[in-house]
Write a structure and sequence with these properties.
Layout (H helix, E strand, L loop, with lengths): L17 H9 L5 H9 L3 H16 L2 E10 L30 H8 L1 H4 L4 E4 L9 H14 L4 E4 L2 H10 L4 H11 L14 H7 L6 H13 L4 E7 L5 H18 L2 E8 L6 H6 L8 H14 L5 E4 L1 H12 L6 E7 L3 H4 L10 H10 L3 E5 L5 E4 L6 H6 L1 H18 L1
Parallel strand pairs: 1-2, 1-7, 1-8, 2-3, 4-5, 5-6, 6-7
Antiparallel strand pairs: 8-9
Helix pairs in contact: 2-11, 2-13, 3-13, 4-6, 6-8, 7-8, 7-10, 10-11, 13-14
The structure holds iron/sulfur cluster.
Length: 409
């Protein structure tokens, strides 16, 4: 049962939202129909206020972030022709196709030694030559060289791919990868579960039920994960809500999800963007905020809602902190996937920048680990003493910034 939250009703402009506000105030679970009503409403401020009230009841004024580093070891993907929204994948012989050797992966991971990285976020394409052995070797080597860094790796789609090419069960693949060093799984690959939408944007990809099954198996093995939804392409509001309902149902069953992260579709450099005539236009800020707020309101059993600033811009992420969001994607080094799709944001944010962003929203920043335990709190307002304490970190930030310059060159 969600926690009850106090609602200021004076701000409600759309009468259709009153029954939903009543439910939020009583701590009653929302239905998918309520979710569709929220998506249909133009009363964004009320939707934000409702989500903010729920978020404050759970997390107060605290906003967390993790210092992570993205590694995308291969962009070779057998679904290159059928995931029409993807700008990242290549066929093996296509210009720009790459697959890291172990040495290349370790060289890229090396930045973790001189920065504050506490997590590797590792995802890539469905590469026929990147099977179980490739990842076992990678995870063991990363753990050997960076034992303090958590490995969050491989979407449900990649796990199923490895199981297929190595002719193993999902369960056995997960057991082996877990033993090699995989700590948790990211939530990518979910897109939108509706079979109709999948047939249009990702015809040959794992089905929604199969995605849920991989996560169910992971949770049963003690591997926690995140969950996502890719919005802003051909899906309807009903598709969005049915997707969220499947996530909520699995969470009721396993409790294994750590966070929900809505992902904004980016139309540059992919076939779907051309078909929709939307090249150059990403989602609207209005829709970005609504997806985050509806996620907060509907997914009452998922503790954390994260905004991915790379996709929606740091400014929207900052505003989202008043729309139900309690966690920001951290300092990200060398993100490739969204930048191929036209994201114009930076590839890394320094510690000072993320602290300023959170403080600028009137919130209190805290660094967390990959399980959302707070490991370092920061003052709500920066003092000169605190600036002094942060000096060693600022030096690391310069290196992060340097890494970004290199990647962008
Ligand atoms: S979205 Fe993932 S599975 Fe689909 S083509 Fe891109 S990398 Fe491959």
């Amino acid at each position: 049962m969600p926690a009850a939250a106090h609602i200021d009703r004076t701000c409600i402009l759309d009468a259709a939202l009153v029954p939903i506000a009543d439910k939020v105030e009583r701590g009653e679970r929302l239905t998918t129909t309520d979710g569709v009503t929220l998506f249909q409403s133009g009363d964004l401020n009320t939707i934000g206020a409702l989500a903010d009230a729920v978020n404050r009841a759970k997390h107060g004024n605290r906003v967390t972030f993790a210092a992570n580093q993205h590694i995308n070891p291969t962009n070779i993907c057998i679904l290159r022709k059928t995931c029409v929204f993807c700008s990242y994948a290549k066929l093996p012989k296509e210009d720009g196709a790459y697959r890291y050797t172990l040495e290349q992966t370790l060289a890229e991971a090396k930045t973790a030694n001189s920065t504050m990285t506490r997590e590797f976020h590792i995802v890539g394409g469905l590469d026929m030559k990147a099977g179980l052995d490739y990842y076992v070797e990678m995870f063991r080597a990363l753990k050997r060289e960076h034992p303090q860094v958590h490995i969050k790796a491989l979407t449900a789609v990649e796990i199923a791919h490895i199981a297929r090419i190595d002719k193993m069960s999902i369960r056995d693949v997960l057991i082996t990868l877990h033993a090699a060093g995989l700590d948790t799984m990211p939530g990518g690959g979910a897109e939108v579960f509706s079979p109709g939408v999948r047939a249009t944007i990702a015809d040959k990809k794992l089905s929604g039920e199969e995605y849920i099954d991989v996560h169910r198996t992971a949770h049963s093995l003690g591997i926690r994960s995140n969950c996502t939804m890719l919005y802003g392409h051909v899906e309807t509001f009903e598709d969005r809500m049915n997707h969220l309902a499947m996530l909520r149902e699995l969470q009721d069953e396993t409790g294994g999800y750590l966070a929900y992260i809505p992902l904004a579709y980016h139309p540059d450099n992919n076939e779907l963007g051309l078909t929709l005539g939307r090249t150059g236009l990403a989602t609207s800020g209005f829709d970005d905020l609504k997806n985050l707020a509806v996620g907060r309101l509907f997914l009452d059993n998922i503790e954390h809602i994260k905004s991915h600033w790379i996709m929606v811009t740091p400014s929207i992420s900052q505003v989202s902190l008043s729309f139900g969001v309690n966690d920001l994607e951290g300092t990200v080094v060398r993100e490739k996937i969204y930048h191929e799709a036209g994201a114009h944001t930076a590839q890394a944010m320094t510690l000072d920048a993320i602290l300023d962003l959170i403080r600028g929203a009137g919130k209190v920043p805290a660094e967390r680990d990959s399980f959302y335990n707070v490991i370092r709190s920061f003052p709500a307002v920066i003092t000169s003493e605190a600036r002094g304490e942060l000096a060693p970190r600022s030096a690391s930030d310069e290196e992060l910034s340097e890494a970004h310059q290199t990647a962008a060159a």
